[in-house]
Amino acid sequence: MRRIYEPHDLIEAELLLGMLASEGVEAHLAGGHLLGGVGELPMFGLLGLLVEDEDAERASKLIAAYNAAQPLPGEEPDSYPGTLLC
Fold first, then answer.
1. N or C of the chain: less Cβ packing under 10 Å?
2. pTM (two decimals)
3. DUF2007 domain spans which residues (predicted)?
4. Shortest CA distance to 13 belongs to which of 59, 37, 47?
């Protein structure tokens, strides 16, 4: 298995796990149970998304495309330009 991405938080990790699963890529979250130790453990680098070696390149491209996505014009509220409503 290869660590391909370090999510900023547990919410981002779960979103990316779901997105990868919907694309047929099995991914695992490393470090999710360590978040309770923040304060005694370093805050960054605890979380990591792991995939099988043969899926690493495809998963990295999917995550890069997901992170680069922009809202379609007209889908964001006037009070929060650039924010996608979910």
1. C
2. 0.71
3. 1-65
4. 47
Spell out the domains of the chain, with CATH numbers in brackets.
Answer: 2-68 (3.30.70.1530)
Q: What is the largest CA-CA distance in the chain?
A: 45
Alpha helices in the chain (DSSP H): 10-22, 56-68
Nearest to 59 by CA among 11, 7, 2: 2
Residue 69 confidence (pLDDT) above 90: no
Instruction: Provide, for the chain, the percentages of residues in helix, strand and coil under a 3-state DSSP scheme, each rounded to the nearest 5.
Output: 40, 15, 45
